[in-house]
């Protein structure tokens, strides 16, 4: 496929993060939420450097060794240019937000703006709370700065001057022990709320820290931050278990080479050169002169010290009538398939499913695969309880879930100690499916209760990520879920799936078959349509097939949150393709596919994006929605998002991220309307059913 028909995923991802920054720039968004979107944008940028930029850098180095040019250098230049543009927009937005906060009587001040009363308070706070956490590191020729600096932290690089002599120190900002934002006591007006960043408290108290140890004429502190390559190699030692290999791999990440060095633009040039040399910053790395504050990801937790209206009003999570109408989750699932949609629904239903299974006398086994899970997880504790109660519990833990490896290693050890069978998946494939299978013995028969979802079993992210979760007693689906678990443990076996779409088994074939059916219908002059909702669309084979479908006359609608390599608006290739992206208070995360299929409406929810890695290099699962009521519910929710006139952006060839124009249409904010839609459904009463009522 011609490169003109394909947008590089790195540039497309930066376009997505630009949409996040738009939320911080949007004056209709409550000001505290705008501050938090700055934090989300910054956190995303950090991950982009760790993963995307680092991978691009490795590719360039490998190409140089092979005397090969695949366009990676030009792509890196384009990426760095876009990053610089976004950084400038970010800095401008930050300044504007600080002024807007001040107009709301919330002041984020620096050390030079402290009143006399606040100066005294800050010195006491530093002595009582901060000082114990600070041990300056003196920079010498022997200092291994690459090994010393931590990826997730901000540092103050301190220059101490005495006549012509200079000394340099590094101070780690102790945000793991103290809040980044400190609320100062009232000083005069009670309506005025004043905050100061921990960095500036340390700056103000440098004399208290260094007096008696150094003689100096002047001392100054400049903020720095370093981002490392997030990739690592796993040893091939045969006698070393995967758990031990992963632990070693994470240690490699802690000392990996930097890919970005950010420093205060006021830092003296001699100091910049010294630090860059100590960090081995190369021409391929991104060295950025920025503002005096780094690690803006901490702004995600910016406190609201003002009125309630300064942040989004709460959308209370809903109870599910299909579960609440029954005494047990098993009776509820036996009565009908149940579809939850987080965070609009309460996550406790999945936790309750596992809790009841942990002590139900009829339950014989529980199987689940874990990709990401909360640090304090009721669900994981229930699995341990189940093992203590004599249930056969199997937990497939993906140790290579990026940035969650350490937490997953900890859970693996805890589960193993409790007698749970822990499986580390397939060596060459990440297990990314969201499966839970409970087996009960009913009337001397083995009966499956299945959960197939689009998101992780994670209590925390379920409050901010939108995701579907299907609960079903369909025995054919249950048997296929069982076969997925068998495949994970016995990857040499081959299973056929009639209902589930399973990667890497048959996802590409099944997707192509579904798309080709619509193409054939369009060629025959019949109605043909495809609606897709994914996080990312970057697989060239799928993109090519969608171009073919568009040429044939298939009406294609897509909601893509993140990367989109398909180029919209190319005449003759995608005249029938409409793509939008929605960024709002919740992160859009579900993967949903709707095919017209001659009016039969085939609807799937899945764990996989339309990316090559998800189709060919991971264990992923998609499930059809068979219940007509639930199928229509999913279709309605998709239609509601396409009707969004507030938070929907148009994805075009130039990646301009223009908002969908409302014109004379109603003002529709789809996430709020989704809550109202589901609330209306859940408020319809169902008759309370006890066990003997259940067939």
From TrEMBL:
It catalyses: [phosphate](n) + ATP = [phosphate](n+1) + ADP. GO terms for cellular component: polyphosphate kinase complex. An intermediate of this reaction is the autophosphorylated ppk in which a phosphate is covalently linked to a histidine residue through a N-P bond. Keywords: ATP-binding, Kinase, Magnesium, Metal-binding, Nucleotide-binding, Phosphoprotein, Transferase. One of its GO terms (molecular function) is polyphosphate kinase activity. GO terms for biological process: polyphosphate biosynthetic process. Residues 329-492, 500-671 form the Polyphosphate kinase C-terminal domain. Residues 6-108 form the Polyphosphate kinase N-terminal domain. It is an enzyme of class 2 (transferase). This is Polyphosphate kinase. It comes from Agarivorans albus MKT 106.
